[in-house]
Design goal:
The complex is a heterodimer. Helix content of chain A is 41%, strand content 18%. Chain A has 17 helices and 13 strands. The relative contact order of chain A is 0.06. In chain B, 26% of the residues are buried. Chain B is rod-shaped, with a radius of gyration of 21 Å. In chain B, a hairpin with a 5-residue loop joins β1 and β2. Helices cover 56% and strands 12% of the residues of chain B. Classes of the chains: A alpha/beta, B alpha+beta. Chains A and B meet through α9, β7, α10, α14 and α15 of A and α1, α2 and β1 of B. β7 of chain A pairs parallel with β1 of chain B.
């Protein structure tokens, strides 16, 4: 009503020219007609009326207007010979004419606009179109959102949800109802994306798919890593760069997919499936770089979440920037904040790994050295052979691992004996370590570098703590 | 390919076995024979682990599905840092 006053009063000047100038607005008609075929019956009528009897109807006036956009009409309903339409019994206008004129008036009067209100009676019919009302405490308006627009919604808004609807005011001529044709709908506050996210999260959590207990440990040293992402994306480059730097021996298997837009979710699922069917990789990185909520949305879709949850190979998810958490991140075994971080989690650092091998080699040697101190001749030979063999083998190892060989030689029990040490052994070849093991008159052998010495004990006394060495 | 998959777990196994052996040599009182046997096994694992890292080929491949549904891994060329723009974001 207020709007109507605006049209009649305030907008007789330039603004209205521009409104009428936008006659291409008629291009929207097919959309509307497709959804509500009944309007088609009203449509053809107008041009016909316009052609044959410019005097009888309101619609012609409106139709004719764009042909001569210069003069601004005083009122959208043009006068006729019998006076303004509807001004007399003779000039009575048809219902169709009235509705068409009213529709035009409404459409011309309002530019596309944002409306705030609460959603009521949301219905998404089988064709995909959505019908609902927007209301506040005192009023409501019928709304329609065509399939092509509604499909962009992450989820249906709930009853009573406060939303911002962007669209055009119009009138459905068949029923004479005034309505808002909504092109975009946003929830206020948390937002529809958030709602869809929470809905799916709740659903998956109820099924236990987000449980910590489901998270599998990543392989420590995977030799094959799969990457599900766009083959042209920066995310892939980041992952490859990091993996190559840390663990250059790793084979990377890329499974390409679109990571945003229509159909991206399906492609991600298929890309994951390819790696699973191939069966070689031991860990999979699912990733894409940063983007808007909408860009990242495929990773919040249920099919992707389920495919990741069902993946027999551990999955590292790195979608968007650190602050973006997607359902895929929650379902994956590990979430990485960035693609590069995913690369770091996927493979060990090569230098650390080699250092670890070296250390294990060292401990192996020192462990053996302690035992061979009480070694028999047979054992000594075995140790010598092993150590010698180890030397040769280790020469072929890369980097620091090689040095183990050198240390093995230095630490070999034979070398110790060569330095002048001797090992006392009993009859069974056990090392005699303390004075208790040397009873007076007892016999034992001394193992020296080139043989054994038979010995007898004349006497043995302990060295006082701190008085000798 | 099954063989390569085994290689991977072989590496992990070798590393874990090696850790177990070192821990036993460090902690337990073992017969010399037993110690030598462990040492020999440990050297074998050390060798296996090193060899797997050295011999594994670090290539990047793309997994492609043919119309028949067969999967094929083909070489994937990653642009070097200098030409990264050529591939787009």
């Amino acid at each position: 009503m207020t709007a109507g006053a605006d049209v009649g009063g305030g907008s007789g000047g330039a603004p209205q020219i521009s409104l009428f100038g936008e006659e291409e607005r008629g291009a929207e008609a097919p959309d509307a007609a497709a959804a509500a075929p009944e309007t088609a019956t009203a449509g053809p009528e107008a041009p016909r009326a316009a052609g044959e009897a410019p005097t009888c109807d309101v619609a012609p006036a409106a139709e004719v207007e764009p042909a001569a956009p210069e003069p601004v009409p005083e009122a959208p309903i043009a006068a006729s010979d019998e006076g303004p339409p509807g001004s007399s019994r003779e000039a009575a206008i048809s219902v169709s004419g009235l509705n068409a004129a009213a529709r035009r008036l409404l459409e011309d009067a309002f530019p596309p606009l944002w409306v705030v209100g609460e959603v009521a009676n949301w219905r998404r019919v089988s064709s995909g179109h959505c019908y609902f009302s927007l209301r506040d405490e005192d009023a409501q308006i019928s709304c329609v959102m065509w399939r092509s627009d509604a499909r962009r919604l992450p989820t249906d808004p709930g009853e009573g949800m406060e939303v911002l609807a962007h669209g055009e005011v119009s009138l459905y001529e068949v029923r004479g109802t005034y309505q808002l044709m909504v092109r975009a709908l946003e929830a206020r506050g948390e937002g529809l994306w958030r709602l869809a996210f929470e809905q799916l999260k709740r659903k998956l959590a109820a099924e236990g798919l987000l449980d910590e207990a489901r998270k599998r440990p990543l392989p420590r040293v995977p030799l094959r890593v799969g990457v599900v992402t766009s083959r042209t994306g920066a995310a892939l480059r980041d992952v490859i760069t990091v993996v190559r730097r840390r663990a250059p021996w790793t084979r990377i298997l890329v499974s390409d997919c679109r990571v945003q837009g229509d159909g991206a979710a399906d492609e991600i699922v298929r890309a994951l499936d390819r790696l699973v069917r191939d069966g070689r990789v031991e860990v999979i990185v699912v990733t894409r770089g940063g983007g808007s909520v909408e860009d990242l949305w495929a990773f919040n879709e249920e099919p992707v979440a389920r495919a990741v949850a069902a993946c027999p190979v551990p999955v590292i998810s790195a979608v968007g920037h650190e602050i973006d958490v997607t359902i895929t991140d929650l379902v994956a075994d590990v979430r990485a904040p960035t693609p590069s971080a995913a690369g770091e989690m996927a493979v060990p650092d090569g230098r650390a790994l080699r250092a670890q091998l070296t250390e294990l080699g060292d401990r192996l040697v020192s462990g053996l050295r302690d035992r061979t101190r009480r070694g028999t001749e047979r054992a000594r030979r075995a140790a010598e052979r092993l150590v010698g063999g180890m030397d040769r083998r280790l020469e072929r190892l890369e980097g620091r691992v090689e040095t183990v060989g050198g240390r093995l030689d230095a630490l070999s029990p034979l070398r110790t004996l060569r330095r002048g040490y001797a090992v006392p052994l009993d009859e069974e070849g056990r090392v005699l370590r303390t004075v208790d093991a040397f009873p007076e008159g007892g016999r034992f052998r001394l193992r020296v570098v080139d043989g054994r010495v038979r010995c007898a004990v004349e006497g043995a006394e302990p060295i006082e703590e701190g008085t000798g060495g | 390919m099954a063989e390569e998959a085994r290689n991977a777990s072989a590496f992990e196994e070798a590393l874990e076995e090696l850790e177990r052996i070192v821990a036993r040599l460090d902690r337990e009182e073992l017969d010399l024979d037993e110690a030598l046997e462990l040492f020999e096994t440990g050297v074998g694992h050390l060798r296996t682990a090193s060899r797997l890292l050295t011999e594994a080929r670090g290539v990047v491949e793309e997994l492609i599905e043919a119309a028949s549904g067969d999967l094929e891994a083909v070489e994937f060329d990653l642009p070097t840092d200098g030409e990264e723009g050529s591939r787009g974001g």
